[in-house]
Write a structure and sequence with these properties.
Layout lengths: L11 E4 L3 H12 L4 E4 L14 H8 L6 E3 L3 H5 L27 H4 L1 H5 L14 H15 L15 H12 L5 E2 L38 H7 L3 E4 L3 E7 L5 E7 L5 E5 L2 E4 L2 H11 L24 E8 L14 E3 L15 E5 L4 H8 L8 H8 L4 E8 L8 E9 L5 E6 L4 H19 L5 E5 L34 E3 L14 H20 L4
Bound molecules: flavin-adenine dinucleotide (FAD) and iron/sulfur cluster.
Length: 525
């Protein structure tokens, strides 16, 4: 593995090793560009993975101090754990389930399609589907997504999805499939095919599911162009007198601080930490935080309109067997305002193990008593979905810094404020009713509605916009205010779409790396 000097001003410094950071690093490394990844959490490897929900949650989650605020479920059910993301080598791609859907054209152009929505801050992306299509293809090939691009067949159906699919058929639906998933259905890219072991969200113990932990990161290291420092929490991005990013200050495992110089800085800490870092990097030249002349850093936090619906069926289903997300229903993904809301939603079959089901059914201190015990007795007869719908950007949904409390690094604690828009309530009600009909058509004896768990899809807090007054970065994730500062994660999303975000994060990261290389060659940055 390469080792670079702290005073080496020629390196690209990448903050975070997840979907965005890991991909940018490997893409740059393959082009011969030198980088240092600073990752706040520890180094994991595949041997650390266990098929145990709570053990893995404790081992890999980001559990540093954070607060929920606003009128969402997080404030009530998860006041100190607004989000569910990973701190460590590979970032949240260790946890993720592998669903790899593309945005629809209308989802990139929400302002043009929805118009100005009361109470929302809806805008168009500076890119569209035609521009993104070749990058989606590159991302699908890289990640090994089942379907047309790779030629890999979709994964087998498990029992839980069979029940859901039959309900879809009986209620006149046609768009239900077991993909696209970034999980090998056949051996590919030096990784084995899925063995249907289950517990994908606890990490894939054989590496069938794409994760930067055992693909992008070791491959970047193998080139000799990338050094990865773990247990390295970035505290501040520094700039020179001209306002260009010049390096980053980070704390190592023992709390010692170091300044790593940089030619280019890429921020990929996920959508809470990335804006938090820009805000914490305020200086006399940038008193409101770096890259924040628009005032949009931290604003427009989106995390999908979501919630669970689980049905008890007359016979045993054993939904926990097989991939966690074994199927996707896409019939409701369209913009049809006649339904009473803008945008659409997916229904994604999701198996939860018994411990998570118990915890998520009625989170907080309410999960006791006869009703929940009765529901859990039906566990082996359950099939269920996670609703995933477009979440409209709102300026008041934001990441801000606590004015007095600090974390273990001495940094102000982030507050994650979210209040759903009326659009979310209308969409969720529609989705719950639709799902109940689907399951009732196959004889469900009970249907349980679960509130959303801590946010796993975090987007939008450093958004892209063609207009520097309305967004933080341009269409390449490059800060409007600082040419050599990039945002490389989901915080650059202008809208959330209905689909899971990671394929789009990876496609944008591949495209961004190409742009960074060009700009470095041209000596523009
Ligand atoms: C349980 C679960 C299931 C999911 N399932 C899916 C799915 O099926 N499909 C899908 O598309 N998405 C899914 N996701 C979401 C997906 O994992 C994320 O969208 C994606 O990983 C985000 O990529 P990122 O690069 O923005 O951040 P991450 O992958 O979270 O990486 C960020 C990294 O930055 C590090 N970091 C943060 N701040 C600092 C700092 N100051 N200094 C140094 N390092 C820092 C963190 O430790 C972390 O390792 C799921 C997530 C979870 C938790
Ligand atoms: S079901 Fe497949 S992808 Fe999921 S953890 Fe098991 S082997 Fe990996």
């Amino acid at each position: 593995m390469a080792e670079f000097d702290l005073n080496d001003e020629s390196v690209v410094v990448i903050i975070g090793s997840g979907a965005g950071g890991g991909t940018v690093a490997n893409e740059l490394a393959q082009k011969g560009i030198k980088s240092v990844i600073l990752e706040a959490g520890p180094r994991f490897d595949i041997g650390d993975i266990e098929n145990d929900e709570w053990t893995m949650f404790s081992k890999i989650s980001w559990l540093d101090k954070r607060y929920s605020a606003g009128g969402w479920h997080g404030s009530v059910n998860h006041p100190t754990l607004p989000t569910w993301i990973v701190k460590g080598f590979g970032g949240s791609t260790v946890h993720w389930a592998g669903v790899s859907l593309r945005f629809k054209e209308y989802e990139f152009k929400t302002r043009s399609n929805y118009g100005a929505v009361d109470g929302a801050n809806v805008e168009d992306w500076p890119v569209d589907l035609a521009e993104m299509t070749p990058w989606y293809e590159k991302a699908e090939l890289k990640m090994g997504v089942t379907g047309k691009t790779t030629g890999m067949p979709h994964l087998p159906w498990n029992n839980g999805f069979r029940v859901l699919a039959e309900g879809c058929r009986r209620t006149g639906r046609s768009d239900y499939r077991s993909g696209p998933m970034a999980i090998n259905s056949v051996e590919r890219d030096d990784r084995p095919s899925c063995q249907q072991i289950g517990f994908c969200m606890q990490g894939c113990a054989i590496g069938a599911k794409w994760s930067t932990m055992y693909t992008e990161l070791p491959r970047a290291e193998d080139t000799g162009n990338c050094e990865i420092r773990t247990d390295a929490m970035v505290l501040k991005i520094e700039h020179d007198d001209s306002g260009k990013a010049s390096g980053v200050l980070y704390a190592d495992k023992d709390g010692n601080q170091h300044l790593q110089k940089a030619r280019v800085v890429c921020v990929a800490g996920n959508s809470i930490e990335s804006p938090r870092l820009l805000l914490n990097s305020a200086s006399s030249m940038f008193p409101d935080g770096l890259a924040n002349s628009s005032g949009q850093v931290g604003k427009n936090y989106m995390n999908h309109t979501t919630g669970g619906v689980y049905a008890a069926l007359p016979e045993k289903v054993h939904m926990f067997r097989g991939t966690s997300v074994a199927g996707i229903v896409g019939d409701e993904v369209r913009n049809d305002p006649a339904r009473g809301f803008n945008g659409g939603y997916y229904l994604e079959f999701l198996s939860l193990g018994l411990p998570f089901m118990a915890a998520f059914m009625e989170p907080g201190n309410t999960g006791w008593g006869r009703s929940i015990a009765g529901a859990l007795e039906n566990y082996d007869k359950m099939s269920g979905v996670w609703v995933l719908g477009e979440d409209l950007a709102q300026e008041k949904n934001a990441i801000t810094l606590h004015d007095s409390e600090v974390d273990q690094y001495g940094l102000p604690v982030p507050i994650v404020a979210k209040t759903p828009h009326n659009n979310d309530y209308e969409m969720t009600a529609h989705a719950y009713e639709t799902t109940a009909q689907i399951y009732e058509s196959v004889g469900a004896t009970d249907v349980y509605e679960l509130p959303a768990y801590p946010a796993t899809h975090n987007m939008g807090t450093n958004r892209m916009h063609a207009d520097a007054d309305k967004g933080v970065v341009n269409g390449y994730g490059q800060a409007h205010d600082i040419d050599n500062l990039f945002v490389s994660d989901g915080s650059q999303f202008t809208s959330s779409g209905a689909c899971n975000p990671t394929l789009t994060i990876v496609a944008l990261a591949i495209r961004q790396a190409e742009y960074i290389a060009q700009e470095m060659n041209a000596q523009n940055i």
